[in-house]
Amino acid sequence: MQLGGLRAEIRRSKWSACLRLGGVVALSLPLTLAAQQPLVSACRQTGWSRAVPVFSDSGGLSAPSLATGHGGVWVSGNAMGNPDQWNTRRFRAIRLGGGEIPPPPPPSVPPWAYLPSARFYFVRPLVVVDSSGMPRFFWAELGAGATVPDSAQFVTKFSRVYRAAFIGSKSPIINGKHAIWSGRRMIYGGAGVNWLGGWGSPALVARDGTIHLVFSEEGPTIVYMRIARDVRHVTEFGGGLGGISPTLAFGPASALYLAYIAPVRDTPKLNANSVFFRRSPDDGATWEPPVLVSRSGTREAHLVRMAVTPSGAIHLTWLKNLSGGYRDEVVWHTLSTDEGRTWSTPRELRVAGSIPQESAVAADSIGGVHAVFIFTGHGGPRLYYVRWHGMTASTPCVLDSGYNVLDPAMATDERGQVQVIWNRLLHAGHGAVREMAMHATFTPPAASGK
Description:
Helix content is 5%, strand content 45%. By secondary structure, the protein is mainly beta.
């Protein structure tokens, strides 16, 4: 798939999960750039470490997921390449500094053993670190009667979501020699699950160990799942309360936040493509009515992202079309300081002549909100970084200007440092391209002791 191909597939059927397993998705924050040359050193001066490869073999990841907890940083995703190469490496997961682990064995007993083990794809594994320090992985699989992806690498629908836990993560991990997996469990089944993995909302873990997960299903329906002591509680928001691109974040005390975009065919049409916000005051047990953040109408909006600062300020960004059609032209950013009851007027971020694609956001320990973003134009895709204080954005700098960059993900660790991963495509000679997953850390002044 060419850069941006997945974006087009999502727009043609925004609620059908018509996605490409080995493709490229990207979101950007359009900003006015004064220069087009690499500015990696300038980003390092703002607090970013030098980027290093994630894997010892310098392999890449599609839809990478990033999670932190108990002093560890975990990364997971699908190996980039053709499906024929995924029999052994379609699932990749690693604890940075600890070593890579092998994929969980496919289920071997009914009703989960509906596909041969070679046809289990572990689609877009999403990692979360639970309250005990154990990494848990969630992924999607095809339905029993689905056609296995061919060389085109397209999947039109998923019908099952699974989870498994890696046990023994506190022991040294060397190329998976200590890998022990819990039993795989199917936790959700539906006709058309839109599972984005690292391209979607991260899973959240509360202090009491409860795991919060959100995704969408054909309808469109928002599926919110709360897993407490291995018991699942599922809430589905359909009809006029459904949407796409749902994302979760923790608020103060027991508050949980949900942001999403109303679908194109929403009724009334006035709400189509509009951004909405919901608040749960009791850790997801009940939800307050939706609050309209920004109305879009016929001009499409995509891929909302959310970050919450230690003071409780809620930041939202999303892609926006202004001229009509599905092509994103700008990114909008807005802020709420009263738990989502009211929102600031969105501010536009733009790069002239570019196509905004993919971004990731995270809040640090001192109130800053960080975003990494990719834009295509002016020499190809580049990974840029910007930091917000309130509604004021910093001057952007380039984190990576390699041959091609894609698929960023971010997370904040217990020390308030911001971790970021992304993919870099490099020329390997004779027209070949090599993929490499990269990692860097931002240390805010308070965390560094400056």
